[in-house]
Every structure is written in C-alpha cells, then in structure tokens.
Design brief:
The complex is a heterodimer of chains A (about 200) and B (about 250). Chain A has about 200 residues and is an alpha+beta fold. Chain A has helices at about 1-10, 10-25, 35-40, 45-55, 85-90, 100-110, 115-125, 130-140, 160-165, 185-195, and strands spanning about 65-70, 75-80, 115, 140-145, 155-160. Chain A has two domains: about 1-90, Winged helix-like DNA-binding domain superfamily/Winged helix DNA-binding domain (Arc Repressor Mutant, subunit A); about 100-195, Orthogonal Bundle (Arc Repressor Mutant, subunit A). In chain B, about 55% of the residues lie in helices and about 10% in strands. The chains are: A alpha+beta (about 200), B mainly alpha (about 250).
Chain lengths: ~200, ~250
Amino acid sequence: MDAPLRLIAANPLDQLAKTVEALLVVASAPLTAQELAEAAADDPERVEAALGLVGERYREGRSGIVLEHVAGGWAFRASREAAESCARLIEKPAQRNLSQAALETLAIVAYLGPCTRPDVTRIRGVAADSAVASLLERGLIAEAGRDEEAGGAIRYRTTPLFERVFGLESLSELPRLDDLGASVDEIRDRLHTVADIA
Amino acid sequence: MIVRELELDLDAFEGPFDLLLTLVLKDELDLAELDIAAIVLAFLERLAEREQLDLDACGEFLVLISALLELKARGLFPEEAAELAELEPEQAAEELARRLAEYRRMKEAAGWLRERLETEGDRYFRVGPAPLAPKVEPTLAPHDPARLAAVIRLLAVPPPEVSLAHMALRFPPVVQFLERFRSVLQRRSRFDFDQEVGELSRIEQAVAFLALLELRRGGEISIDQAAPFAPIRISRADVEREDSWTLRSA
C-alpha cells in the first residue's frame, strides 16, 4: 500500500518550498533559514533545500521576482531588468545623495564598528556629527550600546538595511582593508619625497 | 602649481615649503613657533593668482597642512607630550604616515561603497518595519473557584479612608465678616481692625481683611492707617473722620 501512495504524493520538499515562498512574501526584512524553519515548523536543513528550489524558480532572467541571500538572510527583490520601472514607482531614501563624508563615516562604522563618534572623528580628522545623524536617519547605522572606557560615548554599528542596500550577504563580504588604498610605506615614502627634495 | 615649491616668508622660517617640511621632520624647527595660518594665507595668495583652481595642488596642500596641524596640536597638548616626546622624528613621520594610511584606507573603503551603490543600484526591494511576532496567549493554570473568591473578597475590602484632617484649613466665609463689620458699624461709627479681630486665628484675620477690602470697594467704609504696621482704623463712609480720629487715637 505504501509504495503507490509515495509515487503519487507531491514531493514534500515542494510543499515546504511553497511555504517558504509564502513566508518570504509576507516578510518585510530578510529571514534566516532558522527563522523560516521555525515559522514553517520544519527542519532547517530541509528549509535550506527548499530555498534551493525557490531560488531556482526565482532568479534573474527567469522571473520578475528574485530570491537573494542578503544581510544574513533570504529575501525577495525585484529583478534587475525591472529596475527602471521600479525607479519610476518608488524612491530609495536610504541611499539617495550620500555625501562623501557620510560614505567615509559609513565605511569606518562598517569596518571598525561598533565605534563611537570620536573614533570616526579621529580617523577623518573632522567632526562626524552631521554625517552620523544623516546615517542614523537613513537607517544605515544604529546605536549599539556605550563605550564605557571612552566616557560612555554612544557606539554605532551598521544595520541589516546597510547590508541589504549594498547587496552584502554579511559584513565579511566587505573587501579586506589591506587590499584597499596606499600602504603606510607608500605614504611615508611620499612624505619623504616631498621633504627630501629640498 | 607645485606645492613643495611654495615660497614662504614667515617669522620663524623663510624659504620653500619642502625645506620647511624637512626641518620639521628632522625636528630642527619647532612646530609650536610656526604660524600655520600664515602658510595657508601664502598658499591661498598663490592660488588666487591663477585663474583656474588647481585641485591637485589643493589636495596635496590640504594633506600636508593638516598633517602639520595635527603634529602641532599634539605638541601643544601636555598630556600627549610625553608620548610625543619619546618619538624620534622618524617615528613621528611613521606615526603620521600610519594615520594618513588609515584614513586613506577608509577613504578607499568609502569609494568601494560608492561603486557598490552604483552596481547594486538596480536592486529594488521592499523595506518595512520589523514584523511583529504573534502574541502568545497566556494559558491559565486550573484554579479552585472557592479560593479565587476568597482572594477577590480580600481585594474587595475598601481600603481605609485617608485622613485629610491635617490638611484642613477652615476658611470662614467672607460674608460672615461682612455682616459682622456692618453690624459693628451700625453700633459704632468707627472701630479698630486689630481690636476687632485680634482674638481670631491668622486665617480668620486674613478673611476678615478681605471682607474689609470688599466693604471698601462698595464704598461702605473708609480705611485709614497712619503709618505702615500702625493700627488699621475703619469708619463708616458717611462719617467725617479727621477730628474724631484724632480724639480716639490720642
């Protein structure tokens, strides 16, 4: 009796994939496999497998909706093909007109966070108050406790929205600092070049 | 325009900018004696001579002058003086370079973020507040109705009434004094306020005084007081005061 039944039953993973799909539609932020598993009352490993099915169906070129792994979780977004139309429909307040100061501050918080305003000021050499306020308002950074050593200054970290806006699976996807910019040696050499020409 | 060839004519130094930097780095020139604003002015003057804004020169100048400023600022603050004093000129240059490199890396990181914004700019997604998890209904343990009733009975006992006795301020009505003063004035044409109310409490005296003012306002009486804190004397409005008062108060 068992064998014929199994043959006609839908793949149970398929059923779970539908549930995952539904959960992702109602969620307003990326969901982790763990969160999906809890909501679906199923096993995280099976949820991962179901996500594979969903991802196969919702991918660039095949669907207007795309499943992406972002900010530590899974979320639906519009396909890149639809970007122009989307742009006519909605605004992106979080990343519109980010100033150079705001981007530098954001970089410092992303790499060194949680860190305080004085930390940002020390590196940038100018006060960071307005840049920090702007990033807070945009929801790209958030308060993350206080630094008891530095007189209780508020510390900041980047938010999941930051990872989502910049399309990062996690902060570890940021390029290594060593790979960026001139090395200490290079700058020292330049200083000496200027100085030694005399 | 080449920043290092900038000719300077300062109190502490005369010559090209690069020589100044060399002397500072070799610790042969005390930064504290250097007027950095004057260097900025010299640069701005040179800049103004040219029609086009030389951004490269500006950038280079900014980096150099801010490095000088930071070195000078650190030299001026005593708490870091010890730390700085231990630094050989070479080390100071090293420290300066380290800081510049740190900033440079963050600047590059910011550049990377900007590029990323551009490449990821065509990703549209819905953003919303964090979803609320459904509330878990609290489940009640089984309870004995009799016991519940007993507890509720305990709760239902009205609390003892709070006594307001200590707050009582008994204000006699103003009318009471109006009548009293009117009847006094029917018997006598004048009276002394202090004598009339002297035995009353302070509050009653105050109300009595209000009654006086009320009578005065209605033109029923006139009030006299020879000097501050002197006895207050009341007379019927239709009685001439002067001579008779002199008699009474004499």
